Amino acid sequence: MIDxxxxxxxxxxxxxxxxxxxxFYSGKPKVLPKAKRVGQSQQNLFSxxxxxxxxxxxxxxxxxxxxxxxxxxxxPIIYYYLINKRCIPRPLIRRYLLEVRYFNRKLDNxxxxxxxxxxxxxxxxxxATDEYKxxxxxxxxxxxxxxxxxxxxxxxxxxxxxxxxxxxxxxxxVQELAGDTIILHSLSSYSRAAEYIxxxxxxxxxxxxxxxxxxxxxxxxxxxxFGELVVSQSSxxxxxxxxxxxxxxxxxxxxxxx
Length: 258
Hints:
single chain; alpha/beta; five-stranded mixed beta sheet; 29% helix
């Protein structure tokens, strides 16, 4: 908690960070009430919604997750993770991401994540932590289409995930890319992406898929289907596996939580 306060508030002094934490309390620290049911998340310093370490892939069945609400990101835990751990600039977080709250029926917990709306009005979500890998979809799974800044958008970018898209914007130091972008969210969304591309008249398709076996397999698949229109950009961020890894590797060694 103290380490978080030091990073989030930009304090290098232990006592200042401690005073920041103490400002949340009036008088003696309050004892949080017991959960009404076993497994129900209790209120914490930041939100009444938790981010459970029990949330692992085997607990990520979409049918177990009930969407509650999506709002602009306010939770400092999400900002801290994306800025300090993923090197995503704050303006991009505010522009493209949402704080999504949902209920996990199996865990009997109300939880939070950061996410992005997809084409089917569902929400693709990820946990704001590297301690365990969790991503899923609420309401419906689909690709996300982000329109580019050019009035006549003849080019298309294809990326695998939310952080890949935000990393690409950060690398070019822009708030929006010139051409349209498809965020797959999962490589299993290939057919949805291909169907959308066929309905448009793009002159060039830039793929930024991961430098791993699955990513390059799907790069080849796009090339086989769309021929010379496809230009792979994966070599631009090699030897790193993905765009976010390349972004993090090329950041100066300093605290980014300003």
